[in-house]
Amino acid sequence: MTSQVRGAQLARLLGQWHALPGRRRSPDYAALAGTVRGLLADGRLPLGVRLPAERELAEALRISRTTVTAAYRQLRESGHLASRRGAGSWTMLPGTHRVASTGLWTPLDDRDMIDLGVAALAAPPELMPAARAAAEDLPRYLGGAGYHPTGIIELREAVAAKYTARGLPTSPDQIMVTSGTQHALDLVLRLALAPGGSVLVESPTYPNALAALAARRARITTHGLATDAAGWDADLLLGSLRQGRPKLAYLIPEFQNPTGHLMPAELRERMVGVAHAAGTDLVIDESFVDLPLDGTELPPPVATFDRHSRVISIGGMSKPYWGGLRIGWVRASAPQVQRLAAARVGVDMASPVLDQLVAVHLLADASAIVDARRTQLAAQREALTDALARRLPDWRVTVPRGGVTLWVELDGPISSALARAADEVGVRLAPGPRFGLDGTLERFLRLPFTLPAADLVEAVGRLAAVRYDLDRAGRPSWQEPAVIA
């Protein structure tokens, strides 16, 4: 059944639609239609949602019904609204566009697109030799059924050894292999969070984690991160745990996505103690733990301070190795791992054996591979920050000590508008509001430094051009791309 947004709800989403840049050059109906398109662009208004009747929205916005009628007509003409007499109007996208990873719609033919919406590296050269070696290892598994709900023993041993090397003694029985870090999070939520349970997250945070929590109908509260290098306010974070007593807290202490912050050891220890007293389980996302830059020394893992099985750590191969290798893991107590395996069989039974064997060979060569990744990322980070300083000096950047992203403070609340304009010149962005819950964070933009330096410099040049155009031009027209033969 198609969901519906009420007039008052849409009015709240629209906010100050009549006071947007370029407003004086647009009639009311065009400004209203453009703002609805903006909500669709950054994902705050989903596709397939039935909009309120014209009279209802007019009353909620305290404008004439004629204005709403004209706005709906313009949305239908641009392909963003479908209407049927007696059934209402619901949101959609133009027929020659698709939804990208950022939530924006883009032309299907986007070969010249510089994608800054995905914070992931291309595969390392060692992947092909690892795949060939894995294929040679595969025959010894072919005599069995191929189902290993907790993962093959070689990979669990390798992952356990990684934790032990970080100062956290771990046995293979404490490791469960998953099909990526996102899958690991989903399984943990299935086990540890009842529908409607309370969860504390950072703001901003990883959008796909918010999606996973929404799928569990979680009641989400947030802890706002500082924009400078300090990151977490210890008193506020610990106070949120004590007062809210959430069932779970989802945190990214190593080079937080998107801000790049690194949580200090003292706060990690205090947080675990407060979480235990509050009855809160901590889900710690360690996706970026392998990517410290500039010789940064990492604090102990959060689970080091855990004495009561309150910490569940998740991680994977996507960021240091390759996103196409869908290998992740959960580190927890052995009984928790067994409960996760029991919950898993109703989802996907087990991860592919061949992929796990590839991961075993990559982890055996981890030192050389990851060192090369760090050198590559440091150079690309420098290229991106230098380009921003030259071309967009009014944007504020706190350079992270690791990870793969910059969290940029813009010179105005323009993130979504900039993302729409950048898409027209071949740069795909993930605007700030996608990393929060309520449509805020319009002054921020996540920029990954995972692409080659030349692409990053080119992207910044295009962003600089459209940024200055935003001040001079009205809102962009929304039309299907012209066909050139």
TrEMBL record:
Family: In the C-terminal section; belongs to the class-I pyridoxal-phosphate-dependent aminotransferase family.
Protein name: PLP-dependent aminotransferase family protein
Lineage, uppermost ranks: Bacteria, Bacillati, Actinomycetota, Actinomycetes, Micromonosporales
Keywords, sorted A to Z: Aminotransferase, DNA-binding, Pyridoxal phosphate, Transcription, Transcription regulation, Transferase
Pfam families xref list: Aminotran_1_2, GntR
Native species: Micromonospora carbonacea
Annotated InterPro entries: Aminotransferase_I/II_large, HTH_trans_reg/aminotransferase, PyrdxlP-dep_Trfase, PyrdxlP-dep_Trfase_major, PyrdxlP-dep_Trfase_small, Tscrpt_reg_HTH_GntR, WH-like_DNA-bd_sf, WH_DNA-bd_sf
HTH gntR-type domain boundaries: 26-94
One of the record's GO molecular function terms: transaminase activity
